[in-house]
Write a structure and sequence with these properties.
Mean pLDDT: 93
Strand content: 5-15%
Radius of gyration: 27 Å
Helix content: 10-25%
Strand order of the largest sheet: 1-2-3-4-5-6-7-8-9-10-11-12-13
Low-confidence stretches: none
Number of strands: 13
Distance between the termini: 88 Å
Largest sheet: 13 strands, mixed
Shape: elongated
Structural class: alpha/beta
């Protein structure tokens, strides 16, 4: 099939793709409840789908669809799978009638933003991985959302995420995130942030109940012997049990044992007695390094003050 060909959803394709006959909601007969039109190279759905108001599951994976306008008026829809298409916008969902939709999957499309999805009031799982999303501004609060997948996009922060009061899992790996500003997930237990640009963990306090955290392949370091960023893990995520942190600017395993002693697994290896012993030695090493750093800073400050005083004296002459 040539690139750019118009391939509509025909009655023939539709009739071959309907299945799972079930009772009509509210009584009054039977109806098809599942539509699977995956791998049909479709470019347009027309207006045929919305005639099947009893549909509960729609699968449109691996087509060439660039719009979801034709499936926004399905009052009993539970799941919508649109991965591997060419959808560029979800603006039509702002006023959608999808009150029971609980899962939506738009992995590998061409989205550059995610609008408010408040019309999907019961949405529990949303997958927007492998798109071109640069910002979450306007996404807003979604009190029912339990899992959000945003990996492999172009995000630089989490601003706009809003308070996700029921979210348990957030996946934002493989972006360009340099700030956790916007993180507000009070009951979240699993946070995946590998392959980003994090040098600071400021705002990690937005996930106070996090138990599993992936910070692998970021820009975290132990250059400052006070370890201010790693200490946030101990003080701001007290429930943390499992941490992935390999692939950062330096090996931080023992530093994590020092700063977040409640962590039990680091980079998929249980914290051992030897790790605890090494942490004791590391703490002493860090104290010496902090002392030396403070002395050096004091020396530099004194030299700067002396130079300034000398300069003032020269001006007076």
């Amino acid at each position: 099939m040539a690139e750019g060909d118009f391939v509509p959803l025909t009655h023939e394709i539709l009739s071959q793709s309907l299945s799972q006959i079930d009772r009509v909601v509210g009584g009054g007969g039977l109806a098809f409840t599942r539509l699977d039109c995956s791998n049909k190279e479709l470019t347009d759905l027309g207006n045929k789908v919305e005639e099947y108001t009893q549909l509960r599951h729609i699968i449109l994976s691996s087509n060439k669809l660039n719009s979801v306008d034709a499936i926004t008026r399905l009052p009993h829809l539970l799941t919508l799978q649109l991965d591997n298409n060419e959808v560029k916008s979800l603006d039509c969902l702002k006023d959608a009638t999808l009150p029971w939709c609980q899962r939506i999957d738009l992995t590998t499309n061409k989205l550059s933003a995610v609008p408010p999805l408040t019309s999907l009031g019961r949405l529990r799982i949303a997958c927007f991985a492998s798109n071109e999303i640069t910002s979450l501004e306007g996404f807003g609060n979604h009190p029912s959302l339990e899992e959000l997948q945003l990996q492999e996009n172009q995000l630089t922060s989490l601003k706009g995420l809003g308070c996700l009061s029921s979210l348990r899992r957030l996946v934002a790996s493989g972006n360009q995130i340099a700030s956790l500003e916007g993180l507000d997930v009070p009951v979240l237990t699993k946070l995946e942030l590998s392959k980003n640009q994090l040098v600071s963990l400021q705002h990690i306090s937005g996930a106070p109940k996090c138990e599993e955290l992936d910070l692998g392949e970021n820009q975290l370091s132990a250059e400052n012997p006070n370890l201010p960023e790693l200490r946030r893990l101990g003080s701001e995520t007290p429930a943390l049990k499992s941490l992935k942190i390999g692939g950062n600017a330096s090996d931080l395993r023992i530093e994590v044992v020092v700063t977040a002693p409640n962590v039990q697994i680091i980079d998929e290896e249980p914290v051992s007695a030897e790790d605890r012993e090494a942490a004791v030695a590391k703490e002493e090493e860090l104290r010496e390094a902090i002392k030396a750093r403070e002395e050096e800073l004091a020396r530099q400050a004194a030299e700067a003050a002396e130079a300034a005083a000398a300069g003032e004296g020269g001006d007076a002459e």
